Structure formats: C-alpha cells, structure tokens
C-alpha cells in the first residue's frame, strides 16, 4: 500500500461515511487474475441494491496499481452531477494471492509477484 | 477432439474434475468429462497410466471413485468406487490386473481391476499411518510401493510380502538446538538401477535414502529455498531431480553432490505436478496459476510451450512416447 491520505488530510471533504454501505465501481480489471481480484474487492462490501446513500467506492486499476477512492455524489440538475470526496484514499499493488486461509510459510500460493521475473518489461501487465 | 485424443502429449487433471488433453504440436487443448457439469467434489487428485502402454488413464477423484479413460476412444469407460479410510487419493498404481489406491488417512488397498463390477471387496489392505502425502510405485518392481507424509516417515512396502514395511526410514539427528526435526515428506521418487529413493519435504529439504546401506537415516540431504517443496521429478540420466515449491520456483538439484544446478522461471503459483520426459530434455509443470508449461531443461534451458487452461491444475501425465513431432496426416 502506498500514497495513503487519511480522512483528516483530505481538503473539503464530506461528512462521516461510517455505517453507510457504498456502491462499488471496478475499473479496468481485464485479465483473468484481475477479474478474480476485482470480485474479491466487491465481496468485501455487503451487497445492497437499494442505493439508499449516494456513496460510491471506486477501485481503479492502472498498470497493476489499484487506486481506491470514496466519493459522495449529488445530482445538481438533470444532466449535471457533482462529487465530493470523503474517506481515505490509497494505492495498492497485489503481492500474492493465496489458496485457503492466510499462511505465509506453508500455504499454497495461487499467484506470487516475482520482481525480477514479472517486472522486467514495462508492457507486460498482470492485473 | 475425441478422435485425436491418442495424440495428446500431456494429460492434466483439474480441481473441477475435468481431464484436459493437450496437443502441443497442434497447440490445442480439449476437455473430457465423465458426465455433464464439472463439480468440485470430483476434483482430480491422482492420475496414472493404466495397463497396456499408454492407452488407458486412471483418474482418481476426490469423491473416492477411480474413473477409467481410454485415450484410443477419447472417452470415459467406467468407474470404480473405492471406499475405506478418509481423505482424497494420494496415490494410484496398477500392477498385474490389480489397482492400488492410497488415501490420506493411510489406508492402502489393492482392488481387483475389473471395471464391470462397480465396487467389490479389496484383495489386500495395509495401514501406513495417518497424514499420507504421496504413495509412489517403483516402476522397476511394480509390487513395491513407498509412502510418506506429514509426521509419517518414509516406508517401503512389498505388496507380495508381509504386513511389515521392507524399509522404514529413520529421522535425522536432532538439530543444533537439540530439537527434533519434523517430518513432512511431500513427494517420493524411486531412482532407477538402484534401490535408492529420493524425497522432497515440506521443510524445503531433498533427501536420498538407500535401503541397501546399513543406515536408515538419509544418505544425502540438500535444501532449497524457504518454502515447502510440493512436487519432484527425476531428469533423464537420473543424476538430478527437479523440485517445485509453493512459490512456483523450480530448481534442478544434483544428487551426487547435493548442490543446486539451476532454476527454471515462469511459474507464478504453487507447483502441483511435475514430470520429465524419459528421453528428451523436456519438463512439464502445472500449478495453481492455471497454466501448463513445458520447459527445455538443457541446451538451452528455457520455456518451450505455455498453455492457459482455465481451471486450477492438480496433476499431470506426460506421454513418454518418442515420436513427438511425427503425426499421421488426417485422411
């Protein structure tokens, strides 16, 4: 995880989002591994189709870095909408995906990020 | 696809119960299921060649059935339910018209191999101890099997002999802190032209045992990496083994000196199955990253083929035939 901005560091932020279930947007998770990881992020939040609160959490994948943002939106008019940033923002990169529960020593890994094998070429992306 | 099944080079069993046949020459992969939908309960846990050359494959599934697959016809022919003990199959073998199965709780059973009867009583039953990780048959002496597992030392059994093991390995001496070294044998191989066995452990050790020598402790011990070694295979020439661990690292280890010869790169997930061709320098590997890779082991070392198969791969069988490139033309 890198580039972390906690709530108190974000300027002009909205009110507390605690207790409200946001909607999820997953951007650009194209590969097979990316699709699995994207589904895992979506399942972190309870599934609620009621859309009561106007809050949305965005996971945007760009070049193997996933950017997380939390916004609240309002509709100012028919065509125009505005967003207000709440919540922390951070960037995360996938290090490994394990099969089963967390066991870093003896567990089976489904995908492991290997620096000297996978990051040699700038054009080859994994997520 | 069914007609060309006999020309497939690699057969892979998956976690969803599908048997996949891969033809590396034509770069095609085909799915073979016994019936209908793939299910997690039928996850393939063991594969071995059946009787009569490479015309039949025995597929051991997690629901304790062994299915017979014919490569000539390209379809499943029958199945046999093998109850007894708990856990999934850890080893399958065939000798003289009988089927040998070993499950995780340590029950080894020898069944009469007639696939017309769906289930029958076992001919012979052995208890090898709980927590078995692998049961392997000696290709030179088909009635000898070796078993090993977590806190279950390596034992060699003679199925035609008595109920006691022929060779029972002893644990190494206590380490430098005077603590008992734990045992976790993950894979076993018999070395040809001698009685020796090689095991790779979950504590990243590779050990060679010699039943002919008076000591029951390992003759040679080598370590590789920091992660559990999950699969092992012998190279043609049999002076070295290739091991794979849960991080997807493949390494070739020399058995004469116990040193690392080289590594193979490419895998991103835990290695589940490894097999070398008996004469060509080719190694097939499959793992949890859902890709089957064929590497060339020497001159030059590198990746030959890479095939994405959509489910997690559990075990594989590499065809040992020599005419890899020669294929008959379609009429």
UniProtKB/TrEMBL annotation, chain A:
<dbReference type="InterPro" id="IPR044281">
    <property type="entry name" value="IMP4/RPF1"/>
</dbReference>
<dbReference type="Pfam" id="PF04427">
    <property type="entry name" value="Brix"/>
</dbReference>
<feature type="domain" description="Brix">
    <location>
        <begin position="1"/>
        <end position="103"/>
    </location>
</feature>
<dbReference type="GO" id="GO:0042134">
    <property type="term" value="F:rRNA primary transcript binding"/>
</dbReference>
<keyword id="KW-0690">Ribosome biogenesis</keyword>
<dbReference type="InterPro" id="IPR007109">
    <property type="entry name" value="Brix"/>
</dbReference>
<keyword id="KW-0698">rRNA processing</keyword>
<protein>
    <recommendedName>
        <fullName>Ribosome production factor 1</fullName>
    </recommendedName>
</protein>
<dbReference type="GO" id="GO:0000460">
    <property type="term" value="P:maturation of 5.8S rRNA"/>
</dbReference>
<dbReference type="GO" id="GO:0005730">
    <property type="term" value="C:nucleolus"/>
</dbReference>
<dbReference type="GO" id="GO:0000470">
    <property type="term" value="P:maturation of LSU-rRNA"/>
</dbReference>
<dbReference type="GO" id="GO:0030687">
    <property type="term" value="C:preribosome, large subunit precursor"/>
</dbReference>
<comment type="function">
    <text>May be required for ribosome biogenesis.</text>
</comment>
UniProtKB/TrEMBL annotation, chain B:
<dbReference type="InterPro" id="IPR037379">
    <property type="entry name" value="WDR74/Nsa1"/>
</dbReference>
<keyword id="KW-0677">Repeat</keyword>
<dbReference type="GO" id="GO:0042273">
    <property type="term" value="P:ribosomal large subunit biogenesis"/>
</dbReference>
<dbReference type="InterPro" id="IPR015943">
    <property type="entry name" value="WD40/YVTN_repeat-like_dom_sf"/>
</dbReference>
<dbReference type="InterPro" id="IPR036322">
    <property type="entry name" value="WD40_repeat_dom_sf"/>
</dbReference>
<dbReference type="GO" id="GO:0005730">
    <property type="term" value="C:nucleolus"/>
</dbReference>
<dbReference type="InterPro" id="IPR001680">
    <property type="entry name" value="WD40_rpt"/>
</dbReference>
<dbReference type="GO" id="GO:0030687">
    <property type="term" value="C:preribosome, large subunit precursor"/>
</dbReference>
<keyword id="KW-0853">WD repeat</keyword>
<keyword id="KW-0597">Phosphoprotein</keyword>
<dbReference type="Pfam" id="PF00400">
    <property type="entry name" value="WD40"/>
</dbReference>
<keyword id="KW-0488">Methylation</keyword>
<protein>
    <recommendedName>
        <fullName>WD repeat-containing protein 74</fullName>
    </recommendedName>
</protein>
<keyword id="KW-0539">Nucleus</keyword>
<comment type="subunit">
    <text>Isoform 1 interacts (through WDR repeats) with NVL; the interaction is independent of RNA or pre-60S ribosome particles. Isoform 2 does not interact with NVL. Interacts with MTREX; the interaction dissociation in a late stage of rRNA synthesis is required for appropriate maturation of pre-60S particles and depends on the ATPase activity of NVL.</text>
</comment>
<dbReference type="GO" id="GO:0016070">
    <property type="term" value="P:RNA metabolic process"/>
</dbReference>
């Amino acid at each position: 995880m890198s580039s972390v901005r906690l709530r108190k560091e974000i300027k002009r932020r909205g009110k507390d989002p605690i207790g409200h279930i946001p909607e999820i947007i997953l951007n650009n998770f194209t590969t097979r591994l990316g699709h699995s990881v994207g589904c895992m992020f979506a399942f972190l939040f309870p599934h609620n189709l009621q859309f009561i609160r106007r809050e949305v959490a965005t996971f945007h994948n760009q070049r193997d870095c996933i950017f997380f943002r939390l916004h609240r939106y309002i509709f100012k008019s028919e065509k125009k909408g505005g967003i207000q940033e709440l919540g922390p923002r951070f960037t995360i990169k996938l290090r490994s995906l394990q099969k089963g529960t967390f066991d870093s020593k003896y567990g089976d890994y489904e995908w492991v990020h290997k620096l000297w094998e996978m990051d040699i070429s700038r054009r080859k992306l994994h997520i | 696809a069914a007609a060309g099944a006999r020309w497939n080079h690699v057969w892979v069993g998956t976690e969803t119960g599908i048997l996949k046949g891969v033809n590396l020459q034509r770069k095609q992969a085909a799915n073979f299921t016994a019936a209908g939908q793939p299910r997690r309960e039928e996850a393939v846990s063991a594969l071995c060649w059946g009787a009569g050359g490479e015309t039949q494959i025995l597929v051991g599934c997690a629901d304790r059935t062994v299915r017979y697959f014919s490569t000539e016809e390209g379809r499943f022919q029958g199945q046999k339910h093998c109850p007894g003990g708990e856990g999934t199959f850890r080893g399958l073998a065939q000798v003289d018209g009988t089927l040998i199965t070993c499950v995780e709780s340590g029950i080894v059973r020898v069944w009469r191999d007639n696939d017309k009867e769906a289930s029958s009583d076992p001919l012979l039953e052995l208890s090898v101890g709980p927590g078995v990780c692998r049961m392997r048959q000696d290709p030179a002496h088909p009635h000898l099997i070796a078993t090993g597992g977590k806190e279950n030392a390596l034992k060699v059994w003679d199925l035609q002999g008595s109920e006691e093991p022929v060779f029972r390995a002893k644990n190494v001496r206590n380490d430098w802190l005077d603590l008992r070294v734990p045992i976790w044998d993950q894979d076993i191989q018999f070395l040809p032209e001698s009685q020796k066995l090689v095991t790779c452990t979950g504590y990243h050790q590779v050990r060679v045992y010699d039943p002919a020598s008076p000591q029951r402790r390992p003759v040679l011990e080598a370590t590789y990496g920091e992660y559990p070694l999950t699969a092992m295979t012998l190279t043609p020439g049999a002076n070295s083994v290739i091991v794979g661990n849960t991080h997807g690292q493949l390494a070739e280890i020399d058995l004469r000196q116990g040193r690392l010869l080289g590594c193979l790169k490419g895998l991103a997930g835990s290695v589940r199955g490894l097999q070398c061709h008996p004469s060509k320098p080719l190694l097939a590997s499959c793992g949890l990253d859902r890709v089957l890779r064929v590497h060339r082991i020497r001159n030059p070392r590198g990746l030959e083929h890479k095939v994405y198969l959509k489910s997690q791969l559990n075990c594989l069988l590499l065809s040992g035939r020599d005419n890899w490139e020669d294929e008959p033309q379609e009429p």
